[in-house]
Amino acid sequence: MPDMLVNLLKLPPLGPALEAASARGVEVRRAQPWEQGTVKLFIVENFEPGWADEISVGYANKPVSIYLAVRERRVVGFAAYECTRRAFFGPMGVTVNEREHGVGRALLVACMWGLREMGYVYGIVGGAGPTEFYERAVGAIAIPDSDPGIYEGSLVRASES
């Protein structure tokens, strides 16, 4: 999966994305430090254990650089930025039942605005997939020769080898 580049000066407004998620009963908001254990467990149970490690950096950032999608006080999605590397977006995950309803888009746009507020002009989506989602949502373009990028040589669990 290639890395993708996002022009942060041409982002869509955040308000409509948050309102669309809210209209479906999902609140998208910045994560709080005391939620770290709950969020990490959500990630391990639904996605990749390594992603839970990756977002640890986001909890150390001030402000926290992780957004959550919450329905009825339960996490249904998350996205992070400035965790993997500087100016990088990701990881992100949304439960299957909440996909195709604008939740991922709201998380992505919130994080991209977070990168812009940090002073970046461009953001990088690391190991992007599906690329079409990022193209539509924020105008991302694939970076040539960026696959496998920084994830090359990543460790695997003994059970995967």
What can you tell me about this protein's structure?
Strand 5 (88-94), helix 5 and strand 6 form a beta-alpha-beta unit. A seven-stranded mixed β-sheet has the order 2-3-4-5-6-1-7. The longest helix is centred in the last third of the chain and has 15 residues, at 103-117. The protein is of the alpha+beta class and 161 residues long. It contains six helices and seven strands. The protein has one domain (4-146): Gcn5-related N-acetyltransferase (GNAT) (Aminopeptidase). The protein has helices at 14-23, 36-46, 49-54, 56-60, 103-117, 131-138, and strands spanning 4-7, 27-30, 66-71, 74-81, 88-94, 122-125, 141-142.
For the record, the CATH class is: Alpha Beta
Largest sheet: 7 strands, mixed
Structural class: alpha+beta
The oligomeric status of these chains comes to single chain
Q: How much of the sequence is in beta strands? A: 15-25%
Cross-sheet strand order for the largest sheet: 2-3-4-5-6-1-7
Share in helix: 25-40%
Rg estimate, integer Å: 15 Å
Number of contiguous helices: 6
Mean pLDDT: 94
- Alpha-carbon distance between the two ends: 21 Å
CATH third-tier fold name? Aminopeptidase
What's the number of structural domains?
1
The CATH architecture: 3-Layer(aba) Sandwich
CATH superfamily: Gcn5-related N-acetyltransferase (GNAT)
Backbone shape: globular
The secondary-structure element order is: EHEHHHEEEHEHE
Total strands: the figure is: 7
Q: Which stretches are low in confidence, meaning pLDDT under 50 for 5 or more residues running? A: none
